Amino acid sequence: MIVLTTMKVKTTIKEQMEERFPTVQFHWKESIEEAADMLPEADILVTYGEDLTNEAIEKAKNLKWINVASAGLDLMPFEKIAEKQINVTNARGIHATPMAEYAIAMLLQIERNAKQLIENEKNHLWDRSVKMGTISHKTMLIAGTGAIGQELARIAKAFHIKTIGISRTGEEKAYFDACYTNDALHEHLSEADYVVSILPSTSQTENFFRKKNFS
Which one of 23, 68, 191, 201 counts the least CB within 10 Å of its CB? Predict the structure, then answer.
């Protein structure tokens, strides 16, 4: 079996995989261009997905499985993939911790006026008048209650933030104070101090937030 990558992989992971699966041939390439010569022979392709084209899929004559090392799949040539009956899996949930931490970091940056403080620090300016707020005891509406949304809601509880979840089903999820369907978005937006959108990119979520929501 031949496994081909079109992305950078850490040396430690390469070593672990080669030790664990000694009968598998791994070809560690860092781009689709670099992997081009091996595409016709590959059984499994590990990629971020957005580098794939109809031409690349056509060229991959032995390909049985595409493993996408990210959650998003919307840039992939699915018609050609389905035509060739290639299995596709993604890494749903793998980004829950870093993305949830990123969202909290951005909220803190805004409330604590971090950019202004850093600029003042560069200029050796000590200014007590810089206004700063807190995120504690606020309300956060999270559109998308999947793995990332649930982790964000969990972390938000450390700041005593009220969490409102919006999703297609409205199903109750852990760490959310309340969950509603997509149709209820506009009804609950006015309750929120912060809105975090972590919706998957689908035909149903395209243009999900409209002018009336922002108003």
Answer: 23
